[in-house]
Specification:
By secondary structure, the protein is mainly beta. It has a four-stranded antiparallel β-sheet with strand order 3-4-5-6, with no helix packed on it. The chain has a three-stranded antiparallel β-sheet with strand order 7-8-9, with no helix packed on it. Strands 1-2 form a two-stranded antiparallel sheet. It is globular and about 40 Å long. It starts with a strand and ends with a strand.
Length: about 100
């Protein structure tokens, strides 16, 4: 199944944006407390960094998947945005991963 991410506009009582979040289960979704229009998702084998971007065709949700590199792919069970904008995540395999983007 596809896991969809919907951003709801409470004032207008409707969906503001929607995007395919990932093809695996999503465990966590949160907005950045420091950067407007930035949000994060994580879950089964992934972490994704999202930005709401105003384009010539309207508001879009653009996501960038975190690349694990040499680290074995693992579920991301938790994450925390640090004061400098980097994101620290904990994986099912016990690794702490620092993401800079």
């Amino acid at each position: 199944p596809d896991y969809l991410l919907h951003i709801w506009d409470w004032d207008k009582e409707g969906i503001l944006l929607r995007a395919k979040a990932f093809s695996q289960e999503v465990f966590n979704v949160s907005f950045s407390p420091r950067f407007d229009g930035t949000l994060y998702t994580s879950g089964q084998g992934h972490i994704r960094f999202w930005k709401m971007a105003d384009t010539f065709t309207g508001l879009k949700l653009q996501g960038e998947i975190g690349k694990f590199g040499a680290i074995e792919l693992s579920d991301i069970s938790a994450y925390l945005e640090l004061n400098d904008g980097k994101v620290l995540s904990g994986s099912e395999s016990g690794n702490l991963l620092l993401w800079d983007g």
